[in-house]
Amino acid sequence: xxxxxxxxxxxxxxxxxxxxxxxxxxxxxxxxxxxxxxxxxxxxxxxxxxxxxxxxxxxxxxxxxxxxxxxxxxxxxxxxxxxxxxxxxxxxxxxxxxxxxxxxxxxxxxxxxxxxxxxxxxxxxxxxxxxxxxxxxxxxxxxxxxxxxxxxxxxxxxxxxxxxxxxxxxxxxxxxxxxxxxxxxxxxxxxxxxxxxxxxxxxxxxxxxxxxxxxxxxxxxxxxx
Length: 225
Hints:
Number of strands: 8
Structural class: alpha/beta
Order of helices and strands: EEHHHHEHEHEHEHEHE
Helix content: 40-55%
CATH class of the largest domain: Alpha Beta
Strand order of the largest sheet: 5-4-1-6-7-8
Distance between the termini: 22 Å
Largest sheet: 6 strands, parallel
Number of helices: 9
């Protein structure tokens, strides 16, 4: 089924994990290393993808729930530190941008559009990934999970990205792969495009009710208003 026709917008806010970059392979390696050090079973790539989207703490909680284990608070914090330390050392081993990402961002930027990344990922991970994959050059603003007062699905990170840019809300588009992104867009009063091949946690587009549904990032440049 072809992607929906997406008009041109003056500003685009992009999620990172599962939208711009397939980061699940490296997140999975780090998560499984932390689980393994507790004697827990590793989880599959498919389950890892279902856990991504709300930040590292929520990802670890979901993984532990999936394997039906429990951790005391102190042990949980220790495991979270192991997870983050492992990930920090191996941010871009197997992580790659999705097809058409660089080309799409270049075209949108050259059209005069405002581009921002709005992610729940921590700054210490986000910026090195964007730099390593040569994507940082396309964005005027990057808002991370430790930047705004609240993470997505709150509207706060989106509004923070826009605070110095006077773009009317109907001329903005949030592009993401999860319920977190679509809800954040709705909470901020801006339109959304759902990237259906990211980390959607099993949520379908008819459940999320975004304004647009796409399977490739370059679908954003097929139609210009």
